[in-house]
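Entry for the shared binder. Reason: the reviewer on the internal report wants the predicted structure included alongside the sequence.
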Amino acid sequence: MDQFDYIVIGGGSAGSAAAAGLAKDGTKRVCLIEAGGENKHVFTRTPGFLGFMPKSSTWRFDTERMEALNGRVGYQPRGRGLGGSSAVNGMVYIRGHSWDYDNWAALGCTGWAWDDVLPVFKRQEGNARGGDEYHGADGPLRVSDAISPSPIGHAFIDAAANLQIPRNDDFNGARQEGVGVYQLTQGNGERWSSSRAFIEPLENSSNLDIRTGALVERIEIEDGRATGVTIKRGRKRETIKATGGVVLSAGAFGSPQILMLSGVGPGEELRKHGIDVKLDKNAVGADLQDHCDFLTSYELNDLSLFGGSLRGILAVAKSYFEYRKHRTGLMTSNIAETGGFVKIRPDAPAPDVQYHFMRAIIQDHGREKLKEHGYSLHVCVLRPESRGWVKLNSADPSDAPSINPNFLSDDRDMELLKEGARLMARIAETPPLSETGARDRHPIDYNDDEALEKRIREVSDTIYHPVGTCRMGPNDNDVVDPTLAFRGVENLWVADASIMPRLVSGNTNAPSIMIGERCAEFVKAAATA
């Protein structure tokens, strides 16, 4: 039987940082378990292949039917393999607003205020612009400006500026509000996933054992203490022991699922699937929060925009040769190149909606391939009031979990999303964006409240930022305490977006990586206490 000091479940955005943090000094034996593969192929490394990810790199989850979205089934893709979602996402580097973290601290999460987390962000960051009071220049996570952004994306920025929305060239700097070009987790025009930043430099370390293609069936819990993990690789099942403890980092869907499969979660839910209850904890799988995204698309015959026409395919092929030679051109694009943050409600403590300009027409999360060239505009509510859940479909670890984000179940989210959508339409109708000649593929009267709400319910879905299902907090009924230690099971920590007590005001990849590194610090501190 294998034995390690620590086992980390999940090699995604947070798990890669956590495993590296535990292993890098060479004094502890660490086993990193990942269900997917290494994610070193050209499709994950080349940003412009974002819409052509192989199925092996993505968990493709469907949701339960959501009442407020006309009973529609949503789609929830998550990263699978080393790097997790950082290996398949849009690479947008956003930390969230400083208020988000100060609010976590105000909710009782001591040690998570902005002044506590900023040094970790800076230490991780290797920003091509250099370091300053907000940024690091020497960290392992490469961050850079977009190399060859779309001129149409700049037209979006200029149109917003003509509506007095300020320009902002650093959403992670002194202020978040405004519009501009997003910085990206890229280095030399290549995707820089969390595993590339933290795990690949340690691949030859004798004390870090990386096991890919390993499905976790359960965490072994004996006398209220996590002692190991049972995994299945191919047809072989094995139990790996951990003398120091287990770090669970399987994401907002995977972490609660694994806990429930291990007998930890809502007792009634576990008994329904024939699972022995080791700890009845209702907060496991509860409080799912996500950014509900409304989009509209515009056709524009412009080869600087992605499209499936013959000319577009030839342009991509030509751009790939440019990319291979110079690391420039269309293939460096993350598609979600530009956007910004706007405060719709004057009394909001921070911007309350976010915009993404997509350098392609996005239909059904990109699963429907279109010949037309064009762009999409997206808007989401940053701090939603709606809450969903994650439960089990069965006791089989290979089955997908049951997911219901309950999007727009709180009317306050709908009202704010409508206001954000109206502003988005005004930007599209303002020069110079309005002068491009783009055709709205789904025109509606945005001043018609009923028509707008109908359209929102017809097309809205996730923009891929689920959190909260293993929430952090100061109370016994919270899942983890502010050191990310599990409340009720010793030697068990959770390190991923599931611990967020409130969704941050922005993309969640950078905060997840920060959470992973902090968890490693907490685990090491507990060992010496």
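Summary line for the report: The chain has a mean pLDDT of 97.
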